[in-house]
C-alpha cells in the first residue's frame, strides 16, 4: 500500500481454501440464499480463492459479539477444520469485534463481504485513478480495524484494550498516517475529476452521442461491448472483470458514429467505501446521451439485481426528470430453457424499452443496435440551415449526424433541410 506499510490481516492469498457462509437474516430481502452463496463463491474465485464448501446459516437475532449464535459458530468452526479451510468468508458485514471473535473461535482467517470485494478491486484496478479509488476505499475500511491489525502490540500488554497501554501511541500514529494519506488521495482524485470534466466538455462539443453500459457485475456488459465495437476488453465469467471505464467508437444504423462506454459492474451490498470512491468513475454515466442497463435475464436473482442497479443509478441522479433516456438489454437469452424464453419474450413484447439479446452468440444484437439508434434519434426535427459552400467540414458534419432531406446551392451558400435531434442541434450551434 502506498504511503506506509500496515499489517493487513484481512489480506488473502491466491489458492487459499475457503468456507463461504451466508448469514441468512429474517427480512433479508427478495434474494435467493443459494443464488447469494453462488455469487459469494464467484467473488472468492475471482481472486483465485478455492471455495471448498458453502452454507447458508439462518440468523434470527444477530449477536453483537459474533453475529451468529454460539452453536452456529461452533458448527462453522467444526466444518472449517474438517475441510482444512484456512479462510472463512462471511457474505455479510462484520464489525471489527465480530471479525476478531470469529477468528478466535474458528482458528481461521475471517473476512467479510466488504473485505472480499476490496481485495478484488485492489487486484483488478488498472488505471492510476482506479488504484487511488481502491486505496482510498481500503484505508477507510481499515481505519476502523486498526485495533485488530496491530496484533503484535497485544503481546506488550497481554491482552486487548490498549487504553493507557504502550500500544495506544502507535495506533494513534497510524490513524494519523491513514488520515493524511486519505487526504492526499482525495486531492489527487479531485484533480482527476477536473481533468475528466474537461474531457467530457470536449466530448459534448464533439458530434457523437455517448452510450453508457451499466448493469450488475457479470451481466455480460463487456461481452456486449466487445461484440458491438470489435474491441478485446477483458470479458470473462468473473465478477468484476471490468473496473476501469473503457470507451470505443461504434457504428449504429443511421448514425455515422457513437461512443460506447463500458463501466464497472454493480453488486448488492456494495461497500459504502467503494460507492463513494467510484462515484467519480460513474460520473461518465451521468453525462451519457443514452443509458443501457444490461441484465443477466437467466439469473435467478435477475429482478433483485436490477433493483440494486436502479438504486445506484438513482443515487447518481440519472433517473427522474431531465435524465438521459434508457433501454434494457436482457442478456444471456441463450441460457434460457424454451419455457422461460417464451415467457421473457412475451414480457419484453409488452414493453418498448427492452431488447432480448445474447451478447455471446450475437442473437438479437443487430435489432438491439437499431433500437439504440432509434432512441438516440427520437425527437429529431427538420432544421433549415445555410452554410458557406467553402465550409466542407460543417457540410460533412451535417451529413454524418443528420438526415439531409434537401440541399440547394446558390451564391456561395448551401441551403439545407436536415433532420437533427435537439442534442445534435445544440452541438451544431456550438460549432
What does this structure look like?
The protein has 431 residues and is an alpha/beta fold. The protein contains 16 helices and 13 strands. The protein has helices spanning 33-45, 70-82, 96-106, 113-124, 128-143, 146-149, 154-157, 168-205, 221-229, 272-277, 283-286, 302-315, 338-349, 365-377, 392-401, 422-430, and strands spanning 17-25, 50-59, 87-90, 109-112, 210-215, 246-252, 255-262, 290-296, 326-331, 354-356, 381-388, 403-410, 413-420. The protein has a 6-stranded mixed β-sheet with strand order 6-7-5-8-9-10, with helices on both faces. Helix 4 (113-124) packs antiparallel against helix 5 (128-143) and helix 5 runs antiparallel to helix 8 (168-205). The longest helix is centred in the middle third of the chain and has 38 residues, at 168-205. The radius of gyration is 26 Å and the shape is elongated. The two termini are 46 Å apart. Residues 1-10 and 148-167 have low confidence and may be disordered.
Rg (C-alpha, Å): 26 Å
Unreliable spans are: 1-10, 148-167
Helix content: 40-55%
Name the strands of the widest sheet in spatial order. Answer: 6-7-5-8-9-10
Total beta-strand segments: 13
Q: What's the number of helices? A: 16
Strand content: 15-25%
| Largest β-sheet summary | 6 strands, mixed
Secondary-structure topology with pairs:
Elements: E1 17-25, H1 33-45, E2 50-59, H2 70-82, E3 87-90, H3 96-106, E4 109-112, H4 113-124, H5 128-143, H6 146-149, H7 154-157, H8 168-205, E5 210-215, H9 221-229, E6 246-252, E7 255-262, H10 272-277, H11 283-286, E8 290-296, H12 302-315, E9 326-331, H13 338-349, E10 354-356, H14 365-377, E11 381-388, H15 392-401, E12 403-410, E13 413-420, H16 422-430
Parallel strand pairs: 1-2, 1-3, 3-4, 5-7, 5-8, 8-9, 9-10
Antiparallel strand pairs: 6-7, 11-13, 12-13
Helix pairs in contact: 4-5, 5-8
